[in-house]
Records
---
Amino acid sequence: MALLSTSVRVRVPATSANLGPGFDSLGLALDRYDEVTARVAPGDVVVEVTGEGAGQLPTGDDHLVVRAMRAAFDALSEPLPGLELSCANAIPQARGMGSSSAAIVAGLLLARELVVDGARRLPDPAVLALASALEGHPDNVAPCLLGGFTIAWTENGEGRAVRLDPHPSIRPVVYVPATRGLTAEARAALPERVPHGDAAFNAGRAALLVHAVTSDPALLLTATEDRLHQDYRAPGMPHTAELVATLRAAGVPAVVSGAGPTVLAFVVGDGALPDVGDTWKVWKLGVADAGASIVAGTMGHAERDPVAAGRES
Ligand SMILES: Nc1ncnc2c1ncn2[C@@H]1O[C@H](COP(=O)(O)OP(=O)(O)OP(=O)(O)O)[C@@H](O)[C@H]1O
Ligand SMILES: N[C@@H](CCO)C(=O)O
């Protein structure tokens, strides 16, 4: 049994995946955060949730942060200790803002920090690969870990990613509905096969989107066009599809955020947004440059370096 820290706190950002044509690959970190504190304690695992999901999320072994912690302890060949977990959540669940990836990344980083054994410390690429495996795809966990704008892919079964800086004039805005939508259900709406022309269309738009996000935001409206997932999912989220169409008709680059039903719009500079009524919470968020970070621990490190920021994993 390795020596354990007694308490660690991690801060993990919301994320938006796909960004239109970059299905399962492109993602953006948003400056809205969950904060999770883990304390090693005798007895079972006990979870307290405040904020988003309070009274709804599980409070024991089946909580997603705990499941991720168990996966990391397994990877280190260590038993999961008794734990008190406090989750202060600001990321709404099942809305397309990367809540599950944030929970997974939080769990993996908490476990990594709790095990005080430098020789066996999980390296950053292993954390990304494990997080991608738990989530099923790497496009949300990558920006959650690395911050900024990420391109993620799977190679030999392992999630990999590179981080890029988005253009400073880009300001993400999310329109969050009251209704929830599970990623698993949205993925079930996708066809097994797509026309070759649509695949070629998306390849071009996704490549253009990397240029638009990093260097030329004027191209964002064209670069965010998609033919691989949004139309197939529209019948399951008609209000989302309608809002995306309304914003795009007004010249605002708008897409389904992740698997929805939240809508992500890109405002460039002082660009204005049309009034869309009061059924949506409208959050003007910055890009989270740094990604997940350890904000406190028993080792006395008050504010440590962001995890893996700026590196390839
Ligand atoms: N902070 C959390 N704590 C515990 N479980 C969570 C947390 N966030 C998400 N989950 C689990 O993940 C589920 C939502 O995951 P899902 O992938 O469907 O949505 P999302 O991650 O919010 O959206 P997207 O992947 O489209 O960005 C919740 O119903 C819950 O079971
Ligand atoms: N790429 C994923 C993101 C949501 O987890 C999807 O659209 O299903």
Note: Confidence is low (pLDDT under 50) at residues 299-313.
---
Amino acid sequence: MALRELKVCLLGDTGVGKSSIVWRFVEDSFDPNINPTIGASFMTKTVQYQNELHKFLIWDTAGQERFRALAPMYYRGSAAAIIVYHITKEETFSTLKNWVKELCQHGPPNTVVAIAGNKCDLIDVREVKERDAKDYPDSIHAIFVERSAKNATNINELFIEISRRIPSTDASPPSGGKGFKLQRQPSEPRRSCC
Ligand SMILES: Nc1nc2c(ncn2[C@@H]2O[C@H](COP(=O)(O)OP(=O)(O)OP(=O)(O)O)[C@@H](O)[C@H]2O)c(=O)[nH]1
């Protein structure tokens, strides 16, 4: 079975739950006292998608402002960017639009963009309505669903959808899977925000 390595980065304000999403996906665990990320952290997980193995190389960036300038190192070369906001904090939704603009201007072409409205277990104190939030990702053809790292809601599904949006390779690599070309499927735009 062919193995593909897919670099994925997570972007978004501090405290929105980027690391928690990664931990839920990779380790199926949740830590209510998780520490803020310093610089960035890296984890991998391999999953089967159709007749391929997808090895996600996940760069979880730090949301604190003092690390902001490091982000390009992680989104460059990414097949997908997961931009996270937190449904109980309106300002984190505004910040994500800035990330999308930056990716459009400086990110790699054809990056799959996924917008994750995290902490959907906190609906009683939500500030961002799901229906209002949905218009924006729809307008840029981004993946969008609300999720909860705490309750494991829609976390695996996020990565399955990323796998689905990344076109299959025209030629399978012999093994190890590095350095082969991604082909664009014209029928399904991967990003159209620019
Ligand atoms: N209720 C709830 N809390 C969550 C959820 N996801 C994360 N948290 C909590 O939110 C806080 C911040 O989570 P992190 O995963 O560290 O957030 P981050 O975006 O990685 O933060 P930085 O590393 O500073 O960029 C922690 O206390 C988590 O336990 C969720 O889905 N629901």
Note: The radius of gyration is 16 Å.
